[in-house]
Here is the input.
Amino acid sequence: MVYIVQVLVEHPTHALDTAFDYLANEEIMGGVRVAIAFGYQRIIGYVLGCEYSSMTKEELEKIAGFKYRYISEIIDERPLLNQELQELSLTLAKLTLSPRISCLQTMLPPQLKPSTNKSVGIKYQKVIKVINKNIVVNTVKQQEAYQFLKEYANIPLKDFPYSRALLNKLIEQKAVLVIDEEIAKNVKLIFDLYLRGQSVIGIIKELEKRKILSPTGKVKWCNRTIDVMLSNEKYTGDVELLKSGKSEVHYLASGNNPAILLFLTVV
Here is the structure.
């Protein structure tokens, strides 16, 4: 029915150096950070383990003699440390007589430490993807930049060694796309909810429940935004050619660019 999750809290004190049990409706991997309610605070915890229980929350509470709380949010998509390093943290804690969470915090960079601060979360970046490997660009300099991007796939935008104006020219010629990884993550979620049978209204409710902001940075999503995303062929790796008011003939080129949704064909 539920999963029992063992969580270390972020406070590095010996009095709290033990795993606290929380509940989740899905399996959570050991080694990820989660947001939890602890007393009257919302803090960050570190998952040590997770086990399935066939009992209900009420049945577990009757046996344990206390009330269970659910995990508020899963912060990471995958473990921050491999199994060997997680076990090393326990050895270090015993050798140094330190709380285990202190050892885990020492192993991680500041932005990934299990602690409450504004920078906690998954970090995303913009990357440049080549969407047409056979196009003939206009100038020698554009050809040089285009060749560079074909050799270094999915390079972060900040690492592009040429001018932004040159990149814009390549985008205009439909040679490359700049993909925002955070937007791509949200688009995948929207299509996943759609494939599960959610209506547009249902998708909006789920996005707002997860506190995901709209592309314009607003808390509220509108129906039109979802409709446009679901009908955008570029998200599936396709592109319409000769799409303009001057032509009555359109062609859909499948597999034209790296799809955000590799598994999906929208009809």
